[in-house]
Specification:
The chain is of the alpha+beta class. Helices cover 28% and strands 28% of the residues.
Length: 222
């Protein structure tokens, strides 16, 4: 058996040495760093967008809850004012007795305070030992609008009222009284109610809000 001896030309050998036998594919370190930086920027942008959406939803929810609380408070206030009754508090003397009492810092208020008697306090079949009339007061205390009321129409000295918090974030509260075609900042009539009351509230987040209440025609018969 004979063996063949392969003889290669010098030019073919030089060509084989110049051409790499293995071809390498992949990313360089700089390309990897650039890709990571781009991905980080995109992730940061997406996170900021998500945070903005969540914050907007939180603000919308808070404002919606505050608006609902304001609406509930105005329903309570309107119900009381529209059923205002001309009646004095029997515990008051001749100097202070009047159907509607109002003034700056009255009833331990941080601003204006107001007190009056309202009718229509439900007492089905007169089963409860109290009147259908109720003495109520409104004041601002520690940025809260409070409604104070008594179980009995003429409370005894030292009796503590029932306190109901109806509105938060109240910055100021003022009242004006309409009588004889003009508004007055005070009310001193001892026998009659004004024709109307203007209630001005300044609330954090809402600003100034005014409500007008038309009062029933009522006077105290002597």
């Amino acid at each position: 058996m004979t063996q063949r001896l392969a003889i290669y030309s010098p030019m073919w050998c030089a060509k084989m040495m110049r051409e790499p036998t293995i071809k390498q594919n992949g990313f360089t370190l700089i390309e990897m760093m650039i890709a990571i930086a781009i991905f980080s920027l995109l992730s940061l942008g997406a996170y900021q967008v998500l945070q903005g959406v969540l914050r907007s939803d939180e603000i919308s929810t808070e404002r919606g809850n505050a608006l609902k609380q304001l609406q509930r408070a105005m329903v309570i206030v309107e119900r009381d004012f529209q059923q205002m009754n001309a009646r004095n508090n029997r515990s008051d003397d001749d100097q202070t007795a009047m159907p509607l009492q109002s003034g700056k810092f009255m009833f331990d208020s941080d601003d204006d305070g107001i007190a009056f008697v309202r009718s229509g306090w439900r007492n089905p079949l007169s089963q409860l030992p109290r009147s259908s009339l109720q003495r109520v007061m409104y004041r601002v205390k520690d940025a809260h609008l409070e409604r104070l009321s008594y179980v009995y129409l003429d409370p005894t000295t030292g009796e503590e009222p029932k306190r109901q918090l109806i509105l938060e974030n109240v910055e100021s509260l003022t009242f004006e009284f309409y009588h004889k075609n003009k508004w007055n900042e005070t009310w001193t009539n001892k026998t009659a109610l004004p024709d109307g009351v203007k209630m001005t509230l300044t609330l954090k987040g809402f600003g100034e809000i005014q409500r007008l209440f038309l009062l029933p025609k009522a006077t105290i018969e002597k």
